Amino acid sequence: xxxxxxxxxxxxxxxxxxxxxxxxxxxxxxxxxxxxxxxxxxxxxxxxxxxxxxxxxxxxxxxxxxxxxxxxxxxxxxxxxxxxxxxxxxxxxxxxxxxxxxxxxxxxxxxxxxxxxxxxxxxxxxxxxxxxxxxxxxxxxxxxxxxxxxxxxxxxxxxxxxxxxxxxxxxxxxxxxxxxxxxxxxxxxxxxxxxxxxxxxxxxxxxxxxxxxxxxxxxxxxxxxxxxxxxxxxxxxxxxxxxxxxxxxxxxxxxxxxxxxxxxxxxxxxxxxxxxxxxxxxxxxxxxxxxxxxxxxxxxxxxxxxxxxxxxxxxxxxxxxxxxxxxxxxxxxx
Length: 334
Hints:
By secondary structure, this protein is an all-alpha fold. Helices cover 73% and strands 0% of the residues. The chain has 17 helices and no strands. α5 runs antiparallel to α6, α5 packs parallel to α7 (121-135) and α14 (259-267) packs antiparallel against α15. The relative contact order is 0.14. The mean pLDDT is 84.
């Protein structure tokens, strides 16, 4: 039993921590408070709907079919890595950065293994992760943290895009420059197996594929932040710290607790939503914890190549920190 609990806590660490903190915070507020009032149901419903759509497309193998059609046109390693990286960029616009990496990082590892180019796996996965974190900035539904901010702020769709456009463009240039360091060796793609779509229990698989613990994590965080807002000491403290420094705290908080909780925390104590949006999106770059998408890539890679762990952390962190610094400079100049 202890092992089961430990494995669950290890797998769903963010949910467990969020739940514990939410429960503890309940002891410091009036018992008459209706905790359901804290929850932004628009965010929960929108996120659930997106997850369902993604699961439908995934179970229909739509993404794999599209990628294969692109891959058959590739003739060299640089072109292959470019496709693998920018597939994450474009797909994260519509299916979120997390799901994009869940689908395409294993595909990239498989493709490079079949070509006997394992040496390219670490830079490819590192750049895929950055690309997914940048692509999800394009529209508000590209990542959970932006879904939170979009529903809370009510910023118009186009305004949301224009706010982050300079950072998207600079990041795309950065990715293109990094791809120039990938060798341009000739390749011959292996023959792929036929794609088979399983129709039995289709809707059951769709609903079981939804990450319900992510939804529960959001609910727990809404309760936690709602309680903190009702504790006068924390309310005044956070308002003093955050007010006027939303971008800085968005970046710093993301490095420690990841950008989804950071978005929920900051939006509970400041209405300068533009600054928070910039801070948490830039803040998704940096440490492995800065975005849940970063952890997803890491887990997938380590599961396949445990010996790559230290080297990947080095390359991933270096690339992320360099781009983070560049985007901070862009913010200062703008």
